[in-house]
Amino acid sequence: MTSLVYTVSETLRYRGAIGQWSWVLHRLSGLGVVLFLTLHVIDTSWAVFYPELYVKAIAAYQSPLFTIGEFGLVAAVVYHALNGLRIAAFDARPVMWKYQARAAWFVLGGTVLILVPVFLLMFGHVQEFYSSGRPILPLADVLVEQLPFALGIGGAAVLAIILSAVIGAVTGNKKPGPVSKGAGSPIERFWWSFMRLSALIIIPLVFGHLALSHIVQGVFDITAAGSPVAGTLIEPNPSSILADGINQSGTAVEYVAERWNFLLAGVAIWRIYDIALLATVTLHGFNGLRYVLTDYTNDSPLLRRAAVILCIIAGVVLLTVGGLALIGEIPLAARDAAIQAAANLGLGE
Ligand code: HEM
Ligand code: HEM
User: Fold this and answer.
1) Would you give per-residue pLDDT tens digits along the chain (349 residues)?
2) What is the pTM of this model?
3) Ligand nearest to the CA of 184
4) E-assigned strand segments in the chain
5) Could you tell me if the CB of 126 is within 6 A of ligand 1?
6) How far does residue 34's CA lie from ligand 1's centre (Å)?
7) Which ligand has the minimum distance to the alpha carbon of residue 22?
8) Ligand whose nearest atom lies closest to the CA of 190
């Protein structure tokens, strides 16, 4: 019965004109956000581990190429969230399936309605930055900056294929059964429920995070010298330069330190917020990536197993690197190294 419900729901969701398009858009938007997340968590960890590299990473975020990408990222998150809610709601209320095509149009319309004012607000920040004459990292540097990520992702894929080959040689390379989301084994049922539950938690977390970094302050304010840091002003600690609520040096490292050192009633609320964000989006995103990759590697036990291994490696690396950064300290020396790095790049204010 469950499998019948599942088959019918998949057919209604994924076939036909608008259903097919929303399936494609949901998949592409999810993949785009997973790619961004991989770069973003590693970049952000540099605020703790390699302050000089974090300066460059944020300068890349403030370049025209990434500015265009940020509009795409926001659009992807908004569409994926609304469509994900539609999928979860129709899965929960099968009697509503006859309205699924109309709901898919509502999702598109809702996305446009949300994006128009959001893009206008974001555009305000963009215009202010580009007309301020503040220095911009050249495109060549921005691209070179992304090379290690491309190599890292390629290396992880090769490692996953080698591990898969070794496991296959030991276990006899049996063809695995399909990943049947929801209806299959207990573990697949767990992941099916997890995708929906995590989605509900991700919505407030990711939109709160995006509002802070795009609307309240904007990506460009991360490096505005002497500017207050949003979400840290209720209880600043004037005795500590890195927790006084003001990004005095105008370095991205001091900005992150301000947020992570901020204590509300003694609790590092932004660290806890980011830990929750990291855990939910990484598990949801890489399990989603597993669904996508295993869909396309059904015919090859080697590649299918490699796809699963790749998602596990990537998820574990991100949780470890991001988690260690989130419990790490950013000392004054890191801020000073960032000031020096910005000056060397000609980015100081
Ligand atoms: C903003 C709130 C979000 C909601 C409401 C949401 C909802 C969903 C739902 C309901 C699914 C379908 C799961 C299934 O087929 O069992 C899904 C799949 C997926 N999600 Fe999300 N999600 C959200 C955020 C994210 C984020 C932040 C990422 C990336 C880090 C992401 C990446 C993916 C991927 C890659 C898939 C697989 C797509 C496919 O199978 O075609 N999602 N999401
Ligand atoms: C271009 C848009 C974004 C900007 C400018 C941005 C900026 C930042 C900044 C400055 C931090 C460090 C401290 C803080 O302020 O919380 C951070 C951390 C984080 N962000 Fe974003 N963010 C963006 C989009 C996203 C999205 C879409 C996601 C989820 C899919 C996300 C997930 C995270 C996570 C998990 C952390 C913690 C990282 C770690 O542990 O190393 N961010 N972000």
Assistant:
1) 344 445 445 545 555 567 778 999 999 999 999 999 999 999 999 999 999 999 999 999 999 999 999 999 999 999 999 999 999 998 888 787 788 889 999 999 999 999 999 999 999 989 998 898 888 899 999 999 999 999 999 999 999 999 999 999 988 776 665 555 556 788 999 999 999 999 999 999 999 999 988 778 878 889 989 989 988 877 777 778 888 899 999 999 999 999 999 999 889 999 999 999 999 999 999 999 999 999 999 889 999 999 999 999 999 999 999 999 999 999 999 999 999 999 988 776 5
2) 0.91
3) 1
4) 227-228, 246-247
5) no
6) 10
7) 1
8) 1
How far is the centre of ligand 2, averaged over its atoms, from the C-alpha of 77 (Å)? Answer: 13
Long-range contacts of 178-183 (CB under 8 A, 24+ apart): 178/298, 179/290, 179/291, 179/294, 179/295, 180/3, 180/6, 181/6, 181/291, 182/2, 182/6, 182/91, 183/2, 183/3, 183/5, 183/6
276, two tokens: 């929750």
Residue nearest to atom 17 of ligand 2 (CA): 44
Cα(186) to ligand 1 centroid in Å equals: 20
